[in-house]
Amino acid sequence: MSLSPIITRRTGTRFGSPSTSSRILYNVCRAMVRPVVGVAPLTYGAIRRAAILDSAAGMRIPSGIDREVIRFPDFGGGSGFDGELVRTAGSTADIRDGAVLYLHGGGFMCCGLNTHRPVVASIAKRTGLPVLHLAYRQLPYTSISGSVDDCLSAYHWLLAQGGLPEKIVFAGDSAGGFLVFATALAAAATDLAPAGLVGLSPFLDLDCTAKSAHVNARRDVIAPVSALTAIGSLGGVMPSPVDGDLAGLPPSLLIAAESEVLRVDAELMAQRLSIAGVECSLQIWDGQIHAFPAVWPSLPESRAALRDVATFIRARIA
């Protein structure tokens, strides 16, 4: 049964225009980030240099949360990977009552627990649920499919702690959005689909042909199509989530910026989910940058978007 996706346009301010903070961030990215990212060739050397971003972010511990470090073994015999279980400070929330698996973005090559701890903390506080945040293996040390394997292992860990698929929601931004849907497809193939999926500016189609032809290929102030194309070629052979068997997936919430190029992927996934009979809501936010709720969670628009994310998560788990 085909459904129609629920598509809304959002600004997040009562005056119907982006906030001053959002406009400043947008213009800074246009002036300083896009010129650098747009011309730098994406090589394995560049990937290794980009990997220091998480260390450079420092150990940012937002107030009002507790963290439990989790060490995941690599069942393939490698070094494994880390994660942390984030809860609201003093919370006794149990994984069996509900949990979120958060998969950070960064082009499958950078960012991690430090860069994305603020958005993870925000989700934990707004939902009252424990959030498992992963430092999954990335390029060049594993392929994109290797990153998916890590995310699936973490999901199985949640289930082993007593979590139930119908009480777990996957969420992620950018490349993490790819991992959200790829991991959910792998889980659904064994009848373990989670309760819901959240994608913040998700990168869902490694084929960048449509994105290259879209007007946003010239408007996006952070993610040039050239970089997205290079990621696809360096990441190994991996099917895109938009081409998967979507019928077994749970309801989804997709959020994208109006001018970003990955809006193309969010719209395509919303269409294909609807054709597959899967409930999907898509929010298009004016005047924002790529993955704005994860990049700067304290923006007025980010706070509004994360409230919607929390409402969706609580509804799916309830």
TrEMBL record:
Pfam family, one: Abhydrolase_3
Keyword field contains Hydrolase: yes
Keyword set includes Phosphoprotein: no
Domain Alpha/beta hydrolase fold-3: 100-292
Catalytic residues identified in the record: 174
Family: Belongs to the 'GDXG' lipolytic enzyme family.
Name of the protein in question: Alpha/beta hydrolase
